[in-house]
């Protein structure tokens, strides 16, 4: 995919803020701090378009980016940030889940998991939800640069077993590892 334009459209805090036009959307989901915003930036080859931070739970709204005037990438709020106030925690869940459940433009959900850790209960729950609701989805293991090749191989096998849903794609935003393969997956979802 050649990215000729990447534009931040808006942050949505409620359903009425979602862009109304029918262009297809690819959503990025996963726990807080897993690297969603960094992955979006590395895919687009932009540095600060999607805001990243060391403070987990930073992305609390749904953030829409329009690519090549043709489709959108959507950065969803992260789940599982233990220190969030209860009210906020509930809100994140509802806004992301509402989007996943209702959005007709959604053609693919890219589920990010941290390559260093065993899939969490919430990771597995989200995966089950996507399967149960027949949402096209794809699993990506982030931050692979933080592991040795040996550890990485072991962890990917472990994740593939835990999710039991085919390939888990190895990714690193800092090294751009996995970028071309992930674009292929995205392009395929836009064609079908
Ligand atoms: P929330 O918006 O809080 O849900 O987080 P997020 O999932 O968008 O994570 P974000 O992209 O902000 O990244 C969190 C931290 O992980 C930042 O300090 C990033 O620099 C770091 N990070 C993300 N991806 C990678 C990666 O591939 N390699 C390394 N080494 N660090 C990464
Ligand atoms: Mg983020």
Radius of gyration of CA atoms, rounded to a whole number: 16 Å
Separation, N- and C-terminal Cα atoms: 16 Å
For the residues shown, what is the average pLDDT? 90
How big a fraction of the residues is strand?
Answer: 15-25%
Total individual domains: 1
Q: Specify the structural class.
A: alpha/beta
How are the elements arranged and paired?
Elements lengths: L5 E7 L12 E6 L5 H9 L17 E6 L3 E5 L10 H17 L3 E9 L6 H12 L4 E6 L6 H15 L4 E3 L8 H13 L1
Parallel strand pairs: 2-4, 2-5, 5-6, 6-7
Antiparallel strand pairs: 1-3, 3-4
Bound molecules: guanosine-5'-triphosphate and magnesium ion.
Characterise this structure.
It is a single chain. The protein has 192 residues and is of the alpha/beta class. It has one domain: P-loop containing nucleotide triphosphate hydrolases (Rossmann fold, 3-Layer(aba) Sandwich). The protein is 34% helix and 22% strand. The chain has a 7-stranded mixed sheet, with helices on both faces. Strand 6, helix 4 and strand 7 (168-170) form a beta-alpha-beta unit. The mean pLDDT is 90. It binds guanosine-5'-triphosphate (GTP) and magnesium ion (MG). Guanosine-5'-triphosphate binds at residues 32-38, 52-54, 56-59, 78, 142-143, 145-146, 172-174.
Structure, briefly:
The chain has about 190 residues and is of the alpha/beta class. Helix content is about 35%, strand content about 20%. Guanosine-5'-triphosphate binds near residues 53, 54, 59, 78 and 145.
């Amino acid at each position: 995919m050649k990215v000729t334009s990447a534009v931040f459209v808006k942050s949505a805090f409620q359903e009425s803020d979602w862009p109304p036009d029918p262009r297809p959307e690819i959503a990025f989901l996963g726990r807080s701090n897993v690297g969603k915003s960094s992955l979006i930036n590395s895919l687009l080859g932009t540095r600060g378009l999607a805001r990243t931070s060391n403070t987990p739970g930073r992305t609390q709204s749904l953030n829409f980016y329009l690519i090549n005037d043709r489709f959108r990438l959507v950065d969803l709020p992260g789940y599982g940030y233990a220190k969030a106030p209860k009210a906020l925690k509930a809100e994140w869940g509802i806004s992301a889940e509402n989007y996943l459940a209702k959005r007709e433009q959604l053609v693919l959900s890219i589920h990010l998991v941290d390559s260093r850790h065993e899939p969490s209960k919430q990771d597995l729950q989200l995966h089950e939800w996507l399967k149960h609701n027949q949402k096209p989805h794809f699993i990506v293991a982030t931050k692979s640069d933080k592991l040795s090749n040996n550890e990485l191989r072991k962890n990917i096998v472990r994740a593939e077993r835990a999710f039991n849903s085919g390939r888990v794609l190895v990714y690193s935003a800092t090294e751009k590892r996995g970028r071309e393969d992930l674009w292929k997956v995205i392009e395929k979802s836009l064609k079908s």
